[in-house]
Amino acid sequence: MNSSRHKRSATGAQRPHYRKKRKFELGRQAASTKLGPKRVHTVRVRGGNLKYRALRLESGNFAWGSEQTTRKTRIIGVVSIYMDYIHQNWFDDDRGKSAIIQVDATPFRQWYEAHYAQPVTKKGAKTAPAEGAAATEETKKSKHVLRTLEQLAKIDPLLETQFAAGRLYAAISSRPGQSGRADGYILEGRELEDFAVVLPQEVAYGQAEARTDDNRGEVPLNMREG
User: Is 62:185 a contact under the CB 8 Å cutoff?
Assistant: First the structure.
């Protein structure tokens, strides 16, 4: 119990029981959700309600806000935990709320190409006309529709670079330890620009911490014999 109501006073007297125990006083262990095959435990909480403690997850639903679409995709790994507790658990691969992760870009790329009838990256645009020439002739879209689609199809250059690599940065907005799900949204705009600046700093910090941990067991030069 995370309280001292059950303890006796300094003189040894038993204290009066002025209220019953509460579930929130248990001090349960954190979920610390990891990357792996789905494993969710059901927890009975106060009032007979249920919570879903995700111990391991490998996929989730992520929203692409600017395109107003959501797709289920595979989670590749954790990149940063900078929102709530920056620089903590750097190598633990914990996936809690606000963690920045990398997800598979394939479901979003497939949706984009089906919706706009053009490749999501400039690299794929070179080979597209030869492959999709027949399909373009069959649909016979008006020039106005094509111009509108071309304008709407523009995406952030940073996002386009990620599509070329096959991985997108995303943020988890759900609470895996409470709901048993790892859902979130794709990073875009100012948030993505800021994170592109923060990430190299975090990587440098993590590498420095790793070197410090490796050197802790070594004897200082001024204490070595000889």
Answer: yes
Within-domain flag for 169 = yes
Q: Is residue 132 part of a domain?
A: yes
Cβ-contact 9, 16 below 8 angstroms: no
Segment 31-40 shows an average pLDDT of 92
Tokens representing 150? 């071309």
Apex CA 23: angle with CA 19 and CA 27, to 5°? 115
Flag whether 129 is in a domain: yes
Per-residue pLDDT tens over the stretch 58-89: 999 999 998 999 999 999 988 875 544 444 44
117 or 138: which leads in pLDDT: 117
Model's pTM, two decimal places? 0.71
Indicate the number of domains in the chain: 1
Distance separating alpha carbons of residues 139 and 105, to the nearest angstrom: 27
